[in-house]
Predict the structure.
Amino acid sequence: MDMRASSLRRVVAAALLALAALVPSLPARAMAPEAVRALAFGDNDAKIAALGTLVAADDPQAVPFLQALADGEVQTAGESQVLIVKGAAATDALTGASVSPLPEARDDVVINNRVRRVVAGAIAALKLAASDRAIRLAAVKALQGGADEEMLPAVKKALAKETDPEIRGLLELTQATIQLSSPDRATRVAAIRALAESNDPSTKTLLLGLLERKGDAWAEADAEIRAEAEKSLRSVEGRLAAGEMAGRIFSGLSLGSILLLAALGLAITYGLMGVINMAHGELIMVGAYATYVVQNLVRSHFPGAFDWYLLAALPAAFVAAALTGMLMERTVIRFLYGRPLETLLATWGLSLILIQAMRTIFGAQNVQVENPVWMSGGITVFANAVLPYSRIVIIGFAAAVLALVWLLLTRTRLGLFVRGVTQNRPMASALGVPTGRVDTLAFGLGSGIAGLAGCALSQIGNVGPDLGQSYIVDSFMVVVLGGVGQLAGTIYAALGLGIANKFLEAWSGAVLAKIAVLVFIIVFIQKRPQGLFALKGRMAEA
Amino acid sequence: MNAPLPVPLQTSLRVPVHPLLTKRGWIALFVVSYVLFVLVPSAHLLLPAGHPLHLSDYFVTLTGKIMCYAIVALAMDLIWGYAGILSLGHGIFFALGGYAMGMYLMRSIGRDGVYHSDLPDFMVFLDWKAYPWYWSFTDHFAWAAALVVLVPGALAFVFGYFAFRSRIKGVYFSIITQALTYAFMLLFFRNDTGFGGNNGFTDFKRILGYPITAPGTRVALFAATGVALLGALLLCRWIVTSKAGRVLTAIRDAESRVMFIGYNPLWYKLAVWTLSAMLCGIAGALYVPQVGIINPGEMSPANSIEIAIWVAVGGRGSLVGAILGAFLVNGAKSWFTQAFPEYWLFLLGLIFIVVTLFLPRGVVGLLSGKRR
């Protein structure tokens, strides 16, 4: 009943609006005084009708007035005076003259939610005629949210003038959304067909509304319209599903690359050297804080180069974490080789000290690391799938670091030594490899990569003393799942876990997904304790 | 099963058979019992608050809490010191025992909660209409007390069976137990899990009909914890001096050889692992009414690693050492976090490093080394 009443009102309003458009006597220089008074003094229906008049007049001058109305700054005084009151200053809405002193007896113009929605629509509709493309785009996007029948003429008018294809597309969708409740059947069918081109999730809701059942009767009585809606819904849903899938695969890849970065250093220290480094997460944190420090230095000394501070931050993060790691290796871990459980406890102690040290130096609060400008924004693949540049950069960065590590391990003398010491320490030593120094350097390399991971993570997450704690379980899972002793396992495990996590997340929620993945790993380890890619031969038993 | 080979290996080397406790041990046990069950309660209840020998609420609660930790340390020492299995997930068993007791305590609140409903406040807040199935019968103390040992025991048995059967050991086992407790922590943080989410259980009013904050209740809980601690100590001592305990130590030192001799390590490890989890559950159940809160933070990986350091500080492979370590570390923690909160993590970190580098046998090793 209520719906029908309101649509009846809309018809009346539309008729009024058509009338108003027919009357040519409206002065071009100012807002129609009757409309302004109706907005200020009239009841809700009169207000909505008046809004239609204002939009039809297409007068940009009405925008500040409507904005004031939406902000609750419009007051009335006496029988006919309409004021815009901002603080102590007041202007007459009709003449634009400033009014002082303020009249004693004033009443606020209160608008309810329905009117508020139409006001917002009217502002957007009026802005559709702006010359700035960005304003028009924002306006049409605002209109999409709450398009009302009163706005249809403005939309049509804008559509006739618009040349920008993106805005045109959005306008057409808006028009179709409005025409969906038109009394004319042919118009509605056309509107539904137009909506099939949409890839906006709200269109789906709109079309679903037509297909709802209310008790025994359909919400929409006309079977042909229902069939059309069904068809359009299919095509919208198909496109939305594709977007969701793309978004999910991308965020899975992104998570996977983050896991890879976090675990790559661990794959060297644990996978190759067999050192359980529980302070690995804290080395990531050290890298993130190094980035923070470099950011502040660049900002205060070379503000012009701020966009490129990451170029300085990367080596700084690497060196800071590598030095921390090498210090740890020299002073503590070296004495515990071959005693993994003791190493685990001692490095946990080191991690506590690092956490508290950061807290003492930088405070317990998270610190602010800003993205450079070129990293903000993203590529819109579908309306519901935006790929942020920061994540794309990190995926590329992870690949680059991986390539670097691989080259270092397979193509350099240090890499040869590291592999030699990994495979047979006494033999390598007998052949003249300085095993002690190789250990320190390899540990420094693993720690430095953790620092690089920290630099990358600072761009997408919070930087605080607890940063490392949240990655340590995940990175160990990656290494354990991937198998000890080679990089390939780490890559597959990181990407696999990332994508699996995101897909499960869509299906069961973030926390349950994480639990499911952990349980899966626990079960998996039962079956293959050596991980996905085990070293073959005698090595595996050592 | 696990029968020795048909022709038992005869060796001239006699393994010394330890008595349950030496004479000195029994005397020490008697003295400690006297302190726990006579001196502390009377100093708390009978002496007026201004008396120099009066023991404050804070002291009794703190000591009670640390005794709970000492039970956990015993359980940890049993599995780590004697069987060589380092668990980084013992916090989970502790917390599960605590939650089981917490369920009973929550239901004992009755209609005295903020919303005056039959359901606990957090369920009213979530708009739940009835208890989930796993809350059934938890208003009976006996059933809750059974859950305290059954739930951690069952989880440990299932997890341990699969882990030990595939012969996962050493660091791998430690990391998996850490993942397990992490997963459970995430699970219990969820509101939908039905255990109060972030806030867990708190605001308890009474236990077995007695007001939970009354001095009498406090002393009773303290004494119960003392009984549990001494009982656990005797039980663990009995196990490690028994033949099974010797096999366990042998598994720790050379698992393959034990298998070649004809023992199946699985059942020894599994039994002591499950028992260890149950002891933790009891400790958790005693901890919750004394501290007045249980939340998923107890399951954080950091908490579980701390348990290992209590044992390491006291001395692995020494039951008294484990208890001593729990008291030393937690006593230091209570004092430090009040006096110099900034430096506690530095100190704790240093303890981890110094103990692993310089005190492989802990404080007990240091003391006995000096005596010789």
Notes: Chain A has a mean pLDDT of 79.
